[in-house]
Amino acid sequence: QVVLVESGGGSAQPGGSLRLSCAVSGVSFSSYALGWYRQAPGEQREFIAEINSNGDMTYYADSVKYRFTISRQNAENKLYLQMNSLKPEDTAIYYCNTNSANELRWNWGQGTQVTVSS
Which of 94, 98, 112, 118 is in the most buried spot, having the most CB atoms within 10 Å? Predict the structure, then answer.
């Protein structure tokens, strides 16, 4: 069974930074392209970033491009999201899972809350 555990969220001021982590267990981590998603209150979950299996190709939603950086450490089975220049509209619960093009979607973790306000 695949288990996803997101962490690193919290409160930040506009313009601030946070680094999210996702620990993945129960699967051959390095075999999968992975992605970050988020869900704001009252909104559907949306894709924001993804990375291929060996970490040398990334893709971002326009809303986070040039501000967020996705990375991974295959030796540690971990996925990361560095978030800079945070905006209030980045407030959401953040989740990791397989990449957007993959029809396979693991059971979602609990996510990690990010709140951006002054």
Answer: 94
Instruction: Give the neighbor-by-neighbor strand order of the sheet with 112-116.
Output: 10-12, 112-116, 92-98, 34-39, 46-51, 58-60
Average pLDDT over every residue of 22-34: 96
Judged by DSSP in three states, 89 sits in helix
Q: Are 8 and 104 in contact (CB under 8 A)?
A: no
Give the residue among 25, 6, 17 at the shortest CA–CA distance from 113.
Answer: 6
> Which class for 83: exposed (0-12), middle (13-18), buried (19 or more C-beta within 10 A)?
buried
Instruction: Assess contact for 47 and 61: CB atoms under 8 A.
Output: yes
Q: Convert the pLDDT of each residue in 92-105 to its tens digit.
A: 999 999 998 888 99
- Model pLDDT, residue 101: 87
CA distance 50 to 29: 14
Question: Which pLDDT score, from 0 to 100, does residue 102 have?
Answer: 87
